[in-house]
Amino acid sequence: MRYDGSNELHARQARAKLEKLIKDKKIFDLTEKKPQRSIQANKYLHVCLSYFGCQIGETMEYVKRNYYKILCNPDTFIREREDKYLGRVKYLRSSSELDSSEFSLTVDRFRNWCSSNAGVYIPSPDEERLIQLMELEIERNKEFI
Q1: Which domain holds residue 85?
Q2: 121/81 same-domain check
């Protein structure tokens, strides 16, 4: 069950539930729920990645992993952990784990990099007509990306 900590009734209900779980010596899990970004934001990211892929001749997945995550946003996506046999290993964080502010920052970094380093303009989310034109270009090149 989800509770809103800013709602006094929810806070009381959550405390009562927690105290009962502790009293009954149950196993439980407490997790913070970060604001999720919208489906529209996810769609926008995939259009940006696919369009850039069309422009440079790479797949959307390749662009997402290598340019969006590794090149433009290493501090957000590259993580390290200890592996029992390999020692320290690096892995990529999933973009689904980002909250809306992290997401916006990573997309802005990618857009800026595309423009300044690759000469490819990626429109902002409010440039609806340009996004429609990107979607047309992606559709025309769908078999290649």
Answers
A1: 39-144
A2: yes
Q: State whether 138 and 88 are in the same domain.
A: yes
Question: Residue 34: what pLDDT?
Answer: 63
Percent with pLDDT over 70 in the chain: 95
State how many domains the chain has. Answer: 2
Q: Over 80: is that where the pLDDT of 144 sits? A: no
Query: 62-78: per-residue pLDDT in tens?
Result: 999 999 999 999 999 99
Res 86: pLDDT: 96
Contacts 24+ apart (CB under 8 A), 53-58: 53/145, 54/137, 54/138, 54/141, 54/144, 54/145, 55/118, 55/120, 56/118, 56/120, 57/144, 58/145
Instruction: Examine the domain organization and report whether 24 and 58 are in the same domain.
Output: no
Phi, psi of 76 (to 5 degrees): -90, -35
Pair 107, 36: CB distance under 8 Å: no
Q: What distance lies between CA 10 and its chain's CA centroid?
A: 29
